[in-house]
Design brief:
The chain contains 6 helices and no strands. The protein is mainly α. Helix 3 packs across helix 4.
């Protein structure tokens, strides 16, 4: 930073429950605001996601579908299914029992409700705003 002539900068401090959650947050921030992640980086992000137990749904004991995870991670559900089978076979078995068609009732792609799409878009926008705010140095603008 000193090489750029910057003596001070803002920082966003997050408290997490584990190193996996911290790694996942870093991957997500880079995915949204940096260069595209390589395939290897995407896979590491996926592993951190599973280890941080982000694949669990809102209800206790219920996994998210590959489709839901794919929407959150920006990775195709077929890739997630393959990686899950290779890296986390017990999770893959549980997902196969819970979501035998990969997250769709009829086996094909299921369109999310307009409300669910708006909810996801609002969360993405809030995440991006939260990540951008520390870069705004003018207190009145922030």
């Amino acid at each position: 930073m000193k090489a750029l002539g910057v003596e001070e900068t803002g920082a966003l401090v997050r408290s997490t429950g584990s190193m996996d959650e911290a790694a996942l947050w870093g991957y997500e921030a880079n995915r949204k605001h940096g260069l595209p992640l390589s395939s290897a980086e995407q896979r590491e992000m996926f592993r951190a996601y599973i280890k941080a137990r982000k694949h669990w749904g809102r209800r206790r004991g219920q996994h998210k579908s590959y489709r839901e995870m794919g929407e959150e991670l920006g990775i195709p559900k077929s890739t997630l299914a393959r990686w899950t089978q290779q890296d986390f076979p017990s999770v893959a078995r549980a997902l196969a029992e819970r979501h035998p068609t990969g997250g769709s009732r009829r086996g094909g792609a299921r369109e999310a409700s307009p409300e669910r799409r708006l909810e996801r878009e609002a969360h993405r926008a809030l995440d991006e705003a939260g990540a951008a705010i520390p870069g705004i140095t003018d207190a009145e603008v922030r």
